[in-house]
Specification:
By secondary structure, this protein is of the alpha/beta class. The protein is about 60% helix and about 10% strand.
């Protein structure tokens, strides 16, 4: 499928507006990073607490954010638990145990005021086996249910194990009828004393600053290793200048994308690093396709200048570039517009990277080839010699060598001329 046939656009003749745009975006991004003290890292990189919450009927993630807004600086992401049930991970930047407990309680209180059904009974989705056993001891005795203290603790542990194996949440107390040791009489006591809150804090984790720094280092190394490996590959397949031009173009794309994250105050998390690595591979592939066509045309059009030849190669691959980049951009835009907050950083990085990477293959990588070609041509030009020395003798110096006179041509007689003319005729 070809959208464009036999095009003859002068792409390199319009390179300066794009080069100036790249310089402006790069400078703006670097200034923003310098003013803000670097990128805005997520909890994955800077450290903090991650609180995993499960819901009986999961509300929209925006409603969860609204419930916590103004109380804690949090980041809410939707994930799926080990059983496939949807869960929310609420991240906050606290880093010590005291602040973590306070933040956890604030999260629970905020969610309870928004989604809770507090009715004075004990929340069976909170607390452990010992707390549940203490709540059930007196009501079971009042209901004349004979049970020793070890039996009571075994019953409480069985209920908590059932809750753990079901995404950390009991949705309805009738579910407990299948738990070992729960008789109809005990189930009736449970309904009188407890109730299931429609959400539960499943897990609380702390990501330390050392782990965050290690993740930062590994993420940077992953990008640099990808660039280095591609440089070696392209230098092997083409020439080293092709590899250098491609890597400079991809580095240009990465810097501009990170700068746009800083300008729009977006967090850089592990999903964004995945987007950057995707961008590196995608942009490099686009550049290699153009370079491969340039190499083919160099063999066919040997006497053609490099700039017209690059324009020809870009025109020949234009249809492919528009199809692949355009369709990928539409997919990334769909993720950005409809993918929700969880995929926002990933899709934003892809959208920016595809746009910047597509034009950098033509207007950044190709001019580097022309610049290097012109540099080599300039070195090949012979240097102008010194002006010829005057042949006037210098006082006291040796006389210049005599210039031999040209031999005189022999005189031709009219007869010879006549004979020659006759011979020619």
């Amino acid at each position: 499928m070809e959208l464009f046939r036999n095009t003859n656009y002068d792409f390199l003749g319009k390179k300066w507006p794009f080069i100036i745009l790249s310089l402006i975006l790069t400078a703006a991004g670097l200034v923003s990073l310098a003013v803000k003290g670097g990128p805005r890292y997520g909890i994955d990189f800077k450290g903090g607490a991650l609180v995993t919450v499960a819901f009986a009927e999961r509300p929209p993630v925006d409603k969860v954010r609204a419930a916590l807004a103004g109380k804690l600086p949090v980041d809410v992401q939707e994930v799926f638990g080990s059983t496939g049930a949807p869960q929310d991970i609420i991240g906050t930047d606290v880093r010590d145990d005291v602040a973590l407990q306070a933040a956890r309680q604030t999260i629970v209180d905020s969610l309870t005021s928004t989604f809770g059904k507090a009715n004075g009974k004990y929340n069976i989705n909170a607390g452990g086996a010992d707390a549940l056993a203490d709540k059930l001891r007196d009501p079971l005795q009042a209901a004349s249910v004979p049970m020793s203290d070890p039996q009571l603790h075994d019953l409480a542990r069985n209920i908590i194990d059932y809750r753990t194996n079901h995404s950390g949440l009991i949705r309805n107390l009738d579910e407990l009828a299948s738990v070992p040791g729960v008789t109809p009489q005990i189930l009736n006591v449970l309904k009188q004393v407890t109730f299931p809150e429609p959400f539960a804090v499943v897990k609380t984790e702390v990501v330390g600053p050392k782990i965050g720094a290690e993740l930062q280092r590994k993420a940077i190394l992953a990008v640099l290793y990808a660039l280095g490996g591609m440089l070696v590959y392209i230098a092997f397949r083409f020439e080293w200048i092709y590899g250098a031009a491609a890597v400079i173009a991809v580095f240009h794309d990465t810097i501009i994308t990170i700068g746009l994250f800083s300008l729009f105050n977006k967090e850089i998390s592990l999903t964004v690093v995945a987007a950057l690595l995707t961008l590196v591979g995608y942009s490099m592939n686009d550049t290699i396709v153009t370079f491969d066509r340039i190499r083919e045309n160099l063999k066919i059009h040997r006497r053609e200048g490099l700039e017209p030849l690059i324009n020809l190669s870009v025109n020949q691959t234009l249809s492919r570039t528009v199809l692949t980049s355009g369709l990928t951009l539409l997919t990334a835009l769909a993720l950005f517009l409809f993918g929700g907050q969880v995929l926002n950083g990933f899709s934003f990085g892809l959208v920016c990277g595809i746009i910047v990477g597509t034009y950098s293959s033509v207007f950044v990588a190709s001019p580097i080839l022309i610049l290097w070609h012109n540099f080599l041509e300039g070195r090949k030009r012979p240097l102008a010699g010194p002006p010829s020395a005057s042949r006037e003798p210098v006082a006291g110096g040796p006389k210049p060598p005599a210039v031999p006179k040209a031999p005189k041509e022999p005189k031709t007689s009219k007869e010879n001329v006549r004979r020659g003319t006759a011979k020619v005729k």
